[in-house]
Design a protein that fits this description.
15% strand, seven-stranded mixed sheet, two-stranded parallel sheet, alpha/beta
Length: 242
């Protein structure tokens, strides 16, 4: 009921403020299971994408969130609880995802695993592809556009103005990897193909590192522009000369 209410009330408000547009909605099936694999620009992705897709989208969320009033909210907006602690965390998420797909529903997944720290597209995790190979359900790439600027990391409130776009790509065919859902090389190849499609749809710069590692400071990356690259090369030359 809460999901239906939000889906009825939210679109007119978002349309009035951000004038969202959607392209390729015909690629989303009107019935039957499918995996919507999206880039993850902002917390607002959870609102914009479901608001402009006619069918309910179910997401997976940490079981820690399901307490008090939050439990009621998450359960009624399509977020399914998963215990992500311990060695069986990955399999627990896969089992819950399979359960959703076997019920003929749409499953929303962010392959990056977390929101982008700087607006760029980061290396994808293999979970969506593994689910697709185990169930035979298609993966549909979805690119959110313009949401990062509205609510970037650290911002407490959304900014007004700007436009939000949603680009839906054609379903990806991974049938050539059938039976290889435990083959890490096949999973990585298919996942890289998925991320390449998201890069083309979104227009984002791609970084071949996990976003979570960058957030934790385990990996340092530059802006990727040529001027910075030149400065780095000059510094390396000076260090070698010294």
């Amino acid at each position: 009921m809460l999901y239906k209410m939000i889906h009825t009330v939210l679109p007119p408000i978002l349309t009035a403020i951000y004038r969202p547009w959607i392209e390729g909605a015909e690629h989303i099936p009107t019935e039957g299971p499918a995996i919507l694999a999206s880039n993850h620009l902002s917390f607002l992705d959870h609102f914009f994408l479901p608001a402009y897709v006619d069918r309910p989208i179910f997401f997976l969320g940490k079981s820690d969130y399901f307490s008090g009033w939050q439990r009621y909210f998450f359960e009624n907006v399509g977020v399914m609880p998963v215990n992500r602690e311990g060695g069986d965390a990955g399999e627990a998420s896969l089992r819950k995802g399979i359960e959703i797909l076997e019920d003929g529903k749409l499953l929303g997944i962010y392959p990056e695993g977390t929101r982008t720290p700087d607006g760029r597209l980061y290396r994808g995790k293999t979970g969506p592809v593994r689910l697709s190979l185990r169930t035979g359900v298609p993966i549909i790439p979805v690119a959110m556009i313009g949401v990062f600027e509205i609510l970037p990391p650290g911002a407490k409130f959304p900014r007004f103005g700007g436009r939000v776009g949603i680009k839906v790509g054609a379903p990806l065919d991974f049938s050539r990897y059938a039976g290889k859902d435990d083959d890490r090389f096949a999973l990585r190849s298919a996942t890289d193909e998925l991320m390449y499609e998201l890069m083309l749809l979104s227009g984002q710069e791609y970084v071949d590192e996990y976003a979570a590692a960058v957030k934790k400071g385990e990996v340092e990356i530059g802006s990727g522009d040529l001027a910075e690259l030149g400065r780095q090369m000059d510094e390396e030359k000076r260090d070698r000369a010294a």
